Amino acid sequence: MAQAKINAKANEGRFCRSSSMADRSGRLLESLDQLELRVEALREAASAVEQEKEILLEMIHSIQNSQDMRQISDGEREELNLTANRLMGRTLTVEVSVETIRNPQQQESLKHATRIIDEVVSKFLDDVENAKSHLMSLYSACSSEVPPGPVDQKFQSIVIGCALEDQKKIKRRLETLLRNVENADKAIKLLERSKGTASKTLQQNAESQFN
């Protein structure tokens, strides 16, 4: 009878310890779950800062190469460029790096996608219109919406093989490149228009001298 009581007491002790360990494990798991949310929030915040840096650099560069910048005096242009370069330098002092975890297949897909985009960019000067059209088909391959034009199916399959964060970065890069091409195209058209107006004015002045 005494031995039975001792065994019961021992079993009760083991049960209490097990319950206590389970509680601790549950609390630790809950803490890790909360920390995981904060880690993801940290990565998202860092990615947002990274994107803001890219946007700021693009905007500064756009101002430096704008048509308005070409239509001011040399002194004013030099002063504005000094300010723009100062802002560019300060922006570049912000270092943000969000590493993406990739498996070997995702790493290879990213290299392949990057190589395709780089090849299109290298052909800009040779054929702007064709390069722009190719960029549009690459961008359409990254869009979840119904694209207005053709889709590069091969590129789409490559992008799908990339990590999700890399897919977003590829899409952002294509958006930036398309904006740059569009801005460059507008600048060229404005320049051609201004040349045409100047030529017409010179012709009218010349004709007026003979009349």
Describe the SSE topology:
Blueprint: H1 2-64, H2 67-70, H3 74-92, H4 104-122, H5 128-142, H6 153-160, H7 164-210
Structural class: mainly alpha
Main sheet makeup: none
Q: What is the 3D shape?
A: flat
Would you tell me the overall average pLDDT? 81
Terminus-to-terminus distance: 135 Å
What is the helix content? Answer: over 70%
- Beta-strand percentage? under 5%
What pattern of helices and strands is seen along the backbone? HHHHHHH
**Measured on Cα atoms, how large is the radius of gyration?**
31 Å
Outline of the structure:
This protein is mainly α. It has seven helices and no strands.
How would you describe this structure in keywords?
7 helices; flat; disordered C terminus; 211 residues; mainly alpha; single chain; 0% strand
